[in-house]
User: Fold these one by one.
Assistant:
Number 1:
Amino acid sequence: MVATALTETTSIVDDPRRLVSLEAVHNFRDLGGYRTDDGRTIGWGRLFRADGLYRLTDDDLDVVDALGIRTVVDLRSGPEFDQHGRFPLERYPVAFHHLPIIDSTWMASEIPEVDDTEDGAIEFLTWAYGDMLAQGADRFAHAFGLLAVPGSAPAVFHCAAGKDRTGVLAALILGGLGVDHETIVADYGLTQTAMVRMRAWVMTNRPEMAERMGETPAFMLAANPQAMRNVLEQMVADHGSVRGYLSSIGIGDAVLAEMADAITV
């Protein structure tokens, strides 16, 4: 029975519809296909998670246009937004919201000392996501509310790599709708291969970005699924469930129902 459940989880997470293939954006993924605990399913083409949409090429924008994106929520910090730019609204008008989850990246902040190993990466990410949930609670609530507004879908939310801020918000949305934790963890884990794609692309196309990545400790670039599992387990310990955490930051049943109506079938 357990093996069957794991096989089903792997099958839906690895669905070929999940990754939206683009030239310069490497972690644009559909959150469709995941079952909620009330028997519904998140619809394909309703909600997407992504990395830096400021890099979209003209051909990429044609793909985004075909998706019918109406809403973009940018989770990056103010300095990142100012330095790198934003979604190309001039060429593709959408309802655009800049909503920084954190005020500065970890490279510019004090962080715990960890070993630059896989275990160190798990330790760091577990701390970082927990800190993000505590410090950015009102911002996550705001983002959740924006994406639940009737008519906002199809929508996409993103940060720089589509890994951390985006990964935590995706976990909150999926968990809030009752998607099981192993599916949430597996979906987060897809970012591991996205980071490989991003590294390969920047080496050829963005040497200045490759230099920044080279200066970044490896534990900051990791996307080990165990870190997300740890965070979800801590949320259950502290709040009883993901929904319990959402309730504690002001996201109650009404907003969850609006979200479900917006993106599930």
Number 2:
Amino acid sequence: MTQKQQIENHWELSGKRLVVLGGSSGIGLAVAQQAVAQGATAIIASSNADRVKQAVATIDGKVEGHALDLSNERDIQEFFQKIGDFDHLVFTAGDTLQLNELAATDLTKARHAFELRYWAALAAVKYASPHIRKDGSIVLTTGVAGQRPHKGWTVVASVCGSIEAVTRALAVELAPIRVNAVCPGVVRTNLWQGMNADAREHLYESVGKSLLVGRVGEACEIARAYLFLMQEGYGTGQTVVLDGGAVLV
């Protein structure tokens, strides 16, 4: 087989096995759905067992669901020991955003944001990477707050900036495993479930009007960036921004 043929085969997700942490809803679920539609096997894991079961029911194809406490390092270690070798890791787990001006920031809650979005991601990479096959990849998730923060976004911007930095560092340390990140802007997902329905729709409308594309994002279109980073085979240490033009306005 020529090098070109090997590269072309690498682009295919058919027959590949991927793990999506945070895959029971939103962007993670959309990634799993699209990957399975291309012939991959998806293993989705999230903390809520009922939501995992519901997510699995939405996917027509090869899929496994697992309840996993991402705040528990030992549980993460045991999870990856149990599932064995695979090709791609996707980390999209996140809780409701904490947006407050610094004076009103609860630092205990701020630390919790780092626990799930940064430390859990790092633990996942630590225990997953020995099981990732040759030519495999890792795709983490950051956010536009790290590149274009607003007043009251100090904690969120700090988390996002940390993920971008660790993406570059891991790409160097884990090579030839490729490590990249996706940086979404405001997307219609349950990330905003802490708001009441009217306030949430007002957010989507007001933010959408301010963007160059005139609307907020949808999980299904953000998911395509994760699939691209799994398949393209050449980029590493990169952050792909999909924000509707938020960093430009």
